[in-house]
């Protein structure tokens, strides 16, 4: 009697989740494709809409309400709520509730790659490990940008919120630099930032700093600089965030 053909390996997020439940605890970490499920809670479209409008307080209220109602759930669908919740808290620099949102997840969800990436970023931000914030934010950005990320809508939301986190962090960093310096030679800024002078000038001028081309001096604006607009938030980039992280690391060293 011929042998039966082998059972094909699981490929979808649902099959992978079912397999992990049947196998119990395992020492092997789940693959990247298990970072999120292929279904989302009814509140997710509203969360996406609130994020697109930068209505962060409303987003937090809705996400907290949704996650509290599902606080006993072990379904990966909770990441559709917890991921934007954590990133929004980081945008607002409200670290303790971001930590708590991750801490209340069950072990089966804490071990997922997406949860680990969020946790690493929260830890770096909470401890002000500026040299690590960039690399961990970029890791999360790249995870959501992978072509095999299970849900396109969740990936798009994560990328958007991480990008907005970069801009919010940049604003706070420039406020800090403005408190520390009344004038800053461009050559010194280049030592601090390890970036081309023209890029430093462009980013600095976006925050209201003045640049004297004759003396090559940057004059930081007072700390009353306005909060960036939503349009500016959407135009942020990973390279700009490295500019922030390196500058603050040098300042606080």
Automatic annotation (TrEMBL):
Pfam families per UniProt: CSN8_PSD8_EIF3K
Protein origin, superkingdom: Eukaryota
Location of the CSN8/PSMD8/EIF3K domain: 83-220
Chain positions covered by the region annotation Disordered: 1-39
Compositional bias per record (Pro residues), positions renumbered to this chain: 1-11, 28-39
Cited InterPro entries: CSN8_PSD8_EIF3K
Full protein name: CSN8/PSMD8/EIF3K domain-containing protein
